[in-house]
Fold this protein.
Amino acid sequence: MSSVGNHEPGHSEVCVEDTKFLEHFRMLSTFGATAGGGVDRQAGSEADGEQRAWFTQLLTENGFTASFDQIGNQFGLLELEAGRPYVVVGSHLDSQPTAGRYDGAYGVLAAAHAAFRLAAEWQASGVTPRYNLAVVNWFNEEGSRFKPSMMGSSVYTGKMTLDSALATTDPAGVTVREALEFTNTLGEGTGPQAAYCAEIHIEQGRSMERDGIAIGVVDSNWAANKYEFVVHGEQAHTGSTVIADRHDDLLGASLLVAAAREIADHFPDGAVHTSVGQLDVYPNSPVVVPSRVNLLLDLRSADESLLQEADRMLHERLEQIERSAQVKIEKASSHCWPVTPYQTEGVALAEKIAANRGVSHARVKTLAGHDSTNMKDIVPTVMLFVPSVEGISHNEHEYTTDQDIVTGLHVLTDVVRSLCEGELDRQ
Amino acid sequence: MSSVGNHEPGHSEVCVEDTKFLEHFRMLSTFGATAGGGVDRQAGSEADGEQRAWFTQLLTENGFTASFDQIGNQFGLLELEAGRPYVVVGSHLDSQPTAGRYDGAYGVLAAAHAAFRLAAEWQASGVTPRYNLAVVNWFNEEGSRFKPSMMGSSVYTGKMTLDSALATTDPAGVTVREALEFTNTLGEGTGPQAAYCAEIHIEQGRSMERDGIAIGVVDSNWAANKYEFVVHGEQAHTGSTVIADRHDDLLGASLLVAAAREIADHFPDGAVHTSVGQLDVYPNSPVVVPSRVNLLLDLRSADESLLQEADRMLHERLEQIERSAQVKIEKASSHCWPVTPYQTEGVALAEKIAANRGVSHARVKTLAGHDSTNMKDIVPTVMLFVPSVEGISHNEHEYTTDQDIVTGLHVLTDVVRSLCEGELDRQ
């Protein structure tokens, strides 16, 4: 629970605005609160609708114009000069089913408070910056209820069509369109035009905590190969069917889960991460050898050549498992992305700002996908991390100290100010 | 698809009653029919209600008094002399979600047709046998929707309390009581008093087909140890969480599934069967390392000492898996039963009858549980098997030839006649 090295010199006293920010964060954490200290507010759920209504009110009270676009992205606009593009800053309020309070939510609230401060600043000084300012709460970043993840930013950046997003169904058959209507968050249009983007997020790993770093400046994302596999077997009786006659797809799927871990263990120093998060068995009855298992398997690495080697090992294993479990493994879908950098001028800007504030900082990579990884492909984007205590994430015990989230807010505020004032235009 | 050696000498021509039986069987197979040629009529479902209404009509049309007891067991009574106990013959009409047409349904319909023939016989001859006759369709033998399996016969035989059975819920939270009310099959009372019991069923294995046996006389059941394990891990991010920090319960569960198969493979000649049929992952989200997996694992053997050895191996593996996957494995429940014999006088009776008919027969063991394995603990019980083509079971392609199901009906009719006429009383 230490936060060694995370102090901002001269900022040890928390100011009134920071106190208000922490209060708002505690308030936000009550939406979909779970008994275990986390939150459950999947995209388009009642809790998601409630927190979005609350956020609309917060934006409006602070002089921002709140609206939803055609895929339910929530914007708070400060239009300082009509017709100018926007610096878009934010993250996502939706969560996994039993999630922590920080993932996404911290980034949205920090964006809002940064924006409120800058609005007050510009009003007081009479300065009109070059760009307008938009706070954003992207729809369905998590992808737990509606797949794929990062849906709102994917539609915004043209990576996914609006129609396919709205038609996506959850396991109960509810469409995204219906969920957005249910939560009264389906709007119109394509949102503000972006010139720059910024996002702050918890690290979700433990490297920054270990190294005593208060601000991580994300310079690239890890490469990832994500697969949906369907293991096909044949239904049989768990008791009476002779073992040699079985085509047990749950055995095949289990060997695949184990193989994924063995592949990760093959590479030293955690250079490759592998995982299976979702696995569904059919017919999933106590006395039936199942006939079908669907599972999602990920391979990730910061080194594309290692990822390629891991992928080759996986495909070798697929064939072995087909033979040993007498099953067929179908690759139902795949979604692969390379290592892609965040714009170097944005990285340099964030480093300069952190240094000016005397905040410990380092370049980091993001292993997880974020809305900013979509946005960086269309506009220069700055992505900042704050430390995660013990690296715990997607877990009710996710935690970042108040000091660290306040430091992040300060650095983000400076970054957004610079972007709005056109600091990167001059490069 | 062969049925070598299954001919009954002198019965090569199918009689009118046998044709009617086959017609009724085809009719019965339309309830809950699936596109794949099987059936889906889980206990208390709409399809189950429909077939039960149809069966009531069939019983009534043939002069039997149809009723349901307090746990939804369906009886067709032929009370030849008031106050006398009954020979209870039948099986179950409910099925697994995508099941074959024969499992259970064949035994219920064969029981009804055997009873109809005997009723006509006794009416024609003026003979009144010693016992009354009851056809039974036990409620929820499969246990796929409402656990445990063999629920109706467990309540009937006092192995499960009525209250706990009625309060059992399916995954959607519907109780057995509600499902029985929904299908209009909740009755009163405890059903007829049994003196003897008989059941016929498909083998669900391939030994009889291999050996060219038309009738299997079941002399005992395999011993089984059934466990529900809960693997406890910790939610984490599938991408960003360092592998060494993970407590991945899906990895632990997968290693357990693989270990179960390794244990079966350790014993020669298929002496031990192991399986995991049901496995549920929480929260089962694409980018979350799960925190909990529930699974049902079975070990079965005809040899109790081998089962004990297999069980020791399993428990050794549990500890290894806890260490290697950094998870905790909880044994949430266990249900173990020994090898128990069917009454030898019943076995001898069935053998004598098969021999008299010139039908090939052999003693077999049941690997699966049946309602008769409950009944044999309270009254002398005869259990017969007919062959399963290629041993396929709990599968839409489950198949037994018309010739074999008719031969089974003939032998069952003779067995029930003998039981009703008190043949076993004299021993």
